[in-house]
Amino acid sequence: MPEARSKLLPPLRPEVENTSLESGQIGEVQRPLSAWERMVNLDWVRRVAILVVLALAWEIYGRYLQNPLMVPTFSNMVTALWDATVHGPLLDRIYTSIRVLLIGYACGVGLAAVFTALAVSTRIGTDLLSTLTAMFNPLPAIALLPLALLWFGLGVPSLVFVIIHSVLWAVALNTHSGFLSVSETMRMAGQNYGLRGVRFVVHVLMPAAFPAILAGLKIGWAFAWRTLIAAELVFGVSSRSGGLGWFIFENRNQLETAYVFAGLTAVIIIGLLVESVIFRNIEIRTVRKWGMQH
């Protein structure tokens, strides 16, 4: 009987006494970062390094191919970009494109806010937004360009119409999805504080759904930019006027490939500036400050 009880007891662990270590024996717990480590920790340094690597790869491939009609070198593109900016019409074309883009983007975001507000407040609004999004979101905006030409003629209104279509459904869908993802705990907390109607949306729903709203704004901006360039290509053929799209099309007809790449690079630079300056600052001051993103 004592032997059976001894088998059930846990084994005895030997007692071990650890001696305390001196501070010099522990090692370096905290040390200052080197200059290289501080540079690597900066986001803009890593992004610039990636761009430099891509530019070097482009230059090497262009020199290897030795066919400037197909792929000019990066240095030739930079020369063409400088010439088109200083002596050419590139700045005027950029201004034209940005002006039309901002008009269409603002109208699309405003209409998306109206549709989302209806969807949040009423069941009929939810059904309306779901139905319209399922119908028109898969429809490419550039496919509506012939109808826009028929309804509004050649000019800015047709461009604004197709841009609104490209922005509206992406922003409305992401905003509505963000509102639906707000937890019931946050909803009840806002209601317990007496928030109703517009105050409830502004102080509870919008901050909680802002990551999805911001993602929708980014997607809408990208869709609007692509739609504008594609539409301006068609308008350039029709009326020989327009922005960056016509600049690219005109130089393509003249077989100025370096200037075509310069126009495409201008589109990329504008996209990088909008992403790095506008949207990133919004993220830093909102969702990252609130602890929703890292």
Structural class: mainly alpha
Number of helices: 13
Query: Using DSSP, what is the number of strands?
Result: 0
Task: Evaluate the radius of gyration.
Answer: 29 Å
Question: Explain this structure to me?
Answer:
By secondary structure, the protein is mostly helical. The protein has a single domain, classed as MetI-like fold, CATH 1.10.3720. Helix content is 76%, strand content 0%. It contains 13 helices and no strands. The protein has helices at 2-8, 23-26, 35-40, 43-65, 74-86, 90-121, 123-136, 145-152, 156-180, 184-192, 197-239, 244-253, 257-285. Helix 12 (244-253) packs antiparallel against helix 13 (257-285). The N and C termini lie far apart (62 Å). The mean pLDDT is 82.
What descriptive keywords fit this protein?
mainly alpha, 13 helices, 294 residues, 76% helix, MetI-like fold
Secondary-structure blueprint:
Layout (H helix, E strand, L loop, with lengths): L1 H7 L14 H4 L8 H6 L2 H23 L8 H13 L3 H32 L1 H14 L8 H8 L3 H25 L3 H9 L4 H43 L4 H10 L3 H29 L9
Helix pairs in contact: 5-13, 6-7, 6-9, 6-11, 6-12, 7-9, 8-9, 9-11, 10-11, 11-12, 11-13, 12-13
